[in-house]
Write a structure and sequence with these properties.
Length: 212
């Protein structure tokens, strides 16, 4: 990956990660939990949210993670429901950014930005295209029901109480499975996670951009 690609990738990656974590904290705060705010995480400053390894993964394989926002369910009136809402907020934020990126790409394809000089138009177009792909990949990756990803907490919120042992089992082994899949993909160049994630990325890319 050359320096030019890194420069074009950096803004959409920083925005995707920051908005994802900010929305977790904001929804938790709205539901009565001040933990993220007190920890200085209720901010759009990327430096407050970046996880070095998770960020590098986005540059390498287009999906990764940020430093999780602290949440204390004891502040919630309905802990199980409210944790589900907090968990959904991150992937939903990325889907919103992906949708907006798709609308911008439609405008680019319609020639609405052709008044811009080519040396500005092309880099901005590439960054918006990266934004679409990165946000979709982040949203779908985080919806996987594997701890510590958001999907596991969403699963917990949906499971009847008598089946909560399933989440406890996943919580015990999920991080090792997730890291194993990531390392397997890096070593073998055969990405099991990518094989699941990218068909959804391609589907929503076509949906949001209109097949262009």
């Amino acid at each position: 990956m050359n320096l030019q690609v890194i420069i074009l990738l950096a803004p959409p990656i920083l925005l995707a990660l920051t908005f994802h974590e900010f929305m977790h904290g904001w929804v938790a705060y709205r539901l009565g939990d001040p933990t993220a705010k007190l920890a200085g995480r209720l901010t759009m400053n990327p430096l407050a949210h970046l996880d070095p390894f998770g960020t590098i993964m986005i540059f390498l394989v287009r999906f990764g993670w940020a430093k999780p926002v602290p949440v204390n369910p004891r502040y919630f009136s309905q802990p199980k429901r409210d944790m589900l809402l907090v968990s959904v907020a991150g992937p939903a934020a990325n889907m919103l950014l992906a949708f907006l990126s798709g609308l911008l790409l439609r405008s680019f394809h319609a020639g609405n930005f052709n008044f811009l000089p080519a040396n500005i138009l092309k880099p901005v177009y590439i960054m918006v295209k990266f934004s679409l792909q990165i946000n979709l990949a982040l949203a779908i990756f985080n919806l996987l029901p594997v701890p510590p990803l958001d999907g596991s907490k969403i699963l917990y919120g949906l499971l009847p109480y008598r089946y909560e042992y399933i989440y406890q089992y996943l919580e015990r082994y999920g991080p090792f499975v997730l890291m194993g899949l990531i390392l397997f993909g890096m070593i073998t160049r055969i990405s099991i996670l990518g094989a699941f994630i990218y068909p959804f990325v391609n589907f929503f890319s076509r949906l949001f951009v209109g097949g262009a």
